[in-house]
Amino acid sequence: TQNRTLFFFLSDKVLVNIGNHFDLASSIFVAPRKGIYSFSFHVVKVYNRQTIQVSLMQNGYPVISAFAGDQDVTREAASNGVLLLMEREDKVHLKLERGNLMGGWKYSTFSGFLVFPL
């Protein structure tokens, strides 16, 4: 129905995209309507001895971030999640603010869904 929207992005594949509001080419989710949305992400740095910071961006501004910075491990995960009030056409995406993800987004996920339409 029109009230449903859901996406699940793994590395370079969209596994679920109900409503087609997540664009793989730009990795941007565009809200189809005003409402409360839930977003979560999980990123992994692999064989990388630097700190990474990944932020969830809403309309170009960081909302939440996650960090991974242990220098003595070959793999480390960073995760976060948030509920956001979004207007129709608001945009959400992930941004690598600091560091380098060796292997790109290969070991990362990003998902979201409409919790409550307004």
UniProtKB/TrEMBL annotation:
It is found in: Secreted. InterPro entries: C1q_dom (IPR001073), Cerebellin_Synaptic_Org (IPR050822), Tumour_necrosis_fac-like_dom (IPR008983). SMART domains: C1Q. Keywords: Secreted, Signal. GO terms for biological process: maintenance of synapse structure. The keyword ATP-binding does not apply. Residues 1-118 form the C1q domain. Pfam families: C1q. GO terms for cellular component: extracellular region; synapse. Its main location: secreted. The keyword Ribonucleoprotein does not apply. PANTHER family: CEREBELLIN-2 (PTHR22923:SF50), CEREBELLIN-RELATED (PTHR22923). This is Cerebellin 2. The lineage of its organism: Eukaryota, Metazoa, Chordata, Craniata, Vertebrata.
